Every structure is written in C-alpha cells, then in structure tokens.
Amino acid sequence: MTEPTVVVAAALQESGRLLAARRSAPPELAGRWELPGGKVEPGEDPKRALVRELREELGIGAELVAPVPGEWPLKPGYVLRVWTARLLSGRPRPLEDHDELRWLGPDEIWSVDWLDQDVPAVKAVLAAQQP
Ligand code: CDP
C-alpha cells in the first residue's frame, strides 16, 4: 500500500493568539480557514517542509516548538500533521494560497469557518495547551 501524502501545518502562536489563514483557492475550499502549511515533497523532512511552507506562504521565518499529538485524515491519500510554532522573523502576510490572516485570541478561536478537517487539529492544539 502506498504511504499517504503528509500535509504539515502550523499552529503559529504569539501572545496567546493563534494564526488562522483564509484560503483563496481552490474554489471548493476558498473562504474557509486553516492552519497554514502544505504538502511534504517526496524525500523531504516534514519539519523542514513546514518551515519552507511558512516562508513561501507567509513570508516569515518560524521555529517549530512541538508536534501536536495526532494525525488527521484529509481527502483520500492525505493526512494532516501539526506542529506548534513561533515567529522568528518577519510579519505574516498572505503571499500564496490565502487572502486574509487573522490572529485569534482564546475567545475568538471558533469565530472563523475552519475547514472541516482542521477542526479536530485545532481542538488538539488547544487540548495540548491545557495546564
Ligand atoms: O501548498 P501545497 O500545494 O503544498 O499544499 P496545499 O494546497 O496548501 O495543501 C494540500 C492539501 O491539504 C489541500 O487539499 C488542503 O486543502 C489541505 N490542507 C488542509 O486540509 N488543512 C490544512 N491546514 C492545510 C492543508
């Protein structure tokens, strides 16, 4: 059986807020919100892939902090894995794939229309942060 393609995404956090990104494409996903990230290339290390995606999509340097326990199915043949991350350099801008970014405070997490498949991942991010 072929291994699923891994999609990596970041829970980028600053001052207690979480970065959400609104997709501009493809049409069936446009307008929905996600944790920014993208596909791991064949042979690429997933963590390096995520740092690369954050640079390409948001124009930032980021440091991954910790893996969020869990793996979530996307469309057939794809799985989502998430790391918490922090900004090292730059301010996030929607350079590719997104048309809006929003820093969500603890009371605002569910104020955006997350992609269905990102909902359990966001819940796991929050659960991993409970003291
Ligand atoms: O940027 P790249 O083409 O590598 O990947 P992408 O188009 O951003 O993401 C690949 C697939 O993963 C798409 O079908 C996205 O909808 C999905 N994805 C997701 O469901 N949740 C995320 N947080 C990130 C990507």
Give an overview in words:
This protein has 131 residues and is an alpha+beta fold. The protein has a single domain, classed as Nucleoside Triphosphate Pyrophosphohydrolase, CATH 3.90.79.10. Helix content is 18%, strand content 38%. The protein is built from 2 helices and 8 strands. A hairpin with a 4-residue loop joins strand 6 and strand 7. The longest helix has 13 residues. The chain binds cytidine-5'-diphosphate (CDP).
Descriptors:
Nucleoside Triphosphate Pyrophosphohydrolase, alpha+beta, EC 3.6.1.55, Nudix_hydrolase, 131 residues, NUDIX_hydrolase-like_dom_sf, 8 strands, MutT-like, binds cytidine-5'-diphosphate, DNA replication, 2 helices, 8-stranded mixed beta sheet
Low-confidence stretches: none
N- to C-terminal distance: 40 Å
CATH homologous superfamily caption: Nucleoside Triphosphate Pyrophosphohydrolase
Reading off the top of the CATH hierarchy, the class is best stated as Alpha Beta
Shape: globular
Binned, the helix content reads: 10-25%
Topology:
Elements: E1 5-14, E2 17-23, E3 33-34, E4 37-39, H1 46-58, E5 61-67, E6 72-73, E7 78-89, E8 98-104, H2 118-128
Parallel strand pairs: 1-7
Antiparallel strand pairs: 1-2, 1-4, 2-3, 2-8, 5-7, 6-7
The structure holds cytidine-5'-diphosphate (CDP).
Q: How do you describe this structure in short?
A:
With 131 residues, this protein is an alpha+beta fold. Helices cover 18% and strands 38% of the residues.
